[in-house]
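Contributing new records

If you add data, match the layout below exactly. Sequence lines come first and carry their own label; structure lines follow with theirs. Keep one chain per record. Anything else will be rejected by the validation script.
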Amino acid sequence: LYNLPDFLFGAQSAYSLSNQIVLNYRQRMHFAYLQDDWKVNSKLAVNLGVRYEFATPQYEAQNRISSFDPVANKLIQAKDGSLYDRSLVNPDRNNWAPRVGLAYQVTDKTVVRSGYGISYIHFNRLGGENLLGYNGPNIVNLTINQTPALPACTGNNYQNCFRLIQQGFPEGLVNPSNFSTATTRTNYTPSDYKTSYVQSWHLTVQRELAHNLVLDVAYVGNRSNGLMILADYNQARPNNIGENLSLLARRPIQGFSDIQISYGGGFAAYHAMQVKLEKRYSAGIYLLNSFTWSKALDNASGHLETANGDNSRVNYRNLPGEKAIGGYDQPFNNTSTILLELPYGRGRRWGSSTPGVVNVLLGGWRITGINTMTSGQPVNVNYTVPAAQQASSYPTYRPDYIGGSIYPATQTPTTWLNRAAFAVPATNILFGSAGRNIARTESIYNFDFGLHKEFPLFREDWKLQFRSEFFNLFNTTNLGSPATNISNANFGQITGLASPARQIQFALKLVF
């Protein structure tokens, strides 16, 4: 309501500025792998392997890296010397990755396969959030939050006062000589950070039901451990009842603003039944149906991959409270594919005897169709905490769930969620009882259609391919996510789509 007047009068709630610098990051990786295939007998084959992986922590060519020291409560600088001296993170030298797989032929038409393996994640790039080079005094990334109750700023003042847009940025705001941890975010990776790893396994049964008709049924799982996630290590406590202390006054480490920690507190687990039915016909018809019934759990989405109110930054004081259905969870997913090649043209059933004109008109046509049906995406209900009352600007503040259905009796695009099921917690609590990702969007249905034709050219191995593709052929309306913030008037309203309306494109492709 007040956005336009605030803009006209230059009343900004926050302003940010950063200086510029080019950092020359370095990282070296060395891997060794040993594998052996053992055919136990005519029916059983076993694959055994082990991989050793070593990757240095990231360091910078001129040692322009700094990090937080939680013992001394100060910034420390990289220097020449060991890998730790240059990166401020101890190298992890214990990354062994065993692998085992087997295939057993039960009958001539039935095969059982299984496997287990570990893989490591040596490179993390969460935007600039986990880069220790993105720290002062080399880089000053300053954000100033303001409230109307503050007195007006004069001259180049910017702390504890209100600065108007027309006053511009204060001189030397992001000069390294003026750097202060009290006003600038600090990036921090613990020195004992260990390499994240993923365990993956599967058990698959493949059966030929009839000629060219194959059924695969599989259990697939994985578990990710020590994933790098983000939080505010300097997250403040809430105001006690009757208190009205500033955010800075409530932080446990005085003299520092946000201390953004990138640490191995993340996990993810995935379990799925996957079924695939595949049929090939000699007449140029191919059918494939893939079905998945799955569940995904985690405690944070990947940074820059969040959607529908979810967050890549966690509540550092209650990490177990972030465990829930993952933002990627879509329990049911069914995809049907059909490919039809008309039996005319060179190399096809009636290609050699078809007259030239008919061959040009009827030959080389291919029809494709892909029908997709999936569950909706998770939705994370939240609310807005005034800046002065926050514990940090990083985590998601979820409301209290006070009972009843989170969906209204009659769902419409303007009333997809039930506001009456939620309430704002007391200011001395901040983090409500509602779980993460407790709601879901509607299911998604989509059919894509393709019509392709190949024209032979003057050389046998040259072809000109015409492609016409129709995305969302039936123009199905798939509703997007509802507004997730109960503090806003539009809470529960859907104003967008999960997939675009029908799109048609034409293309020519030269294959040689």
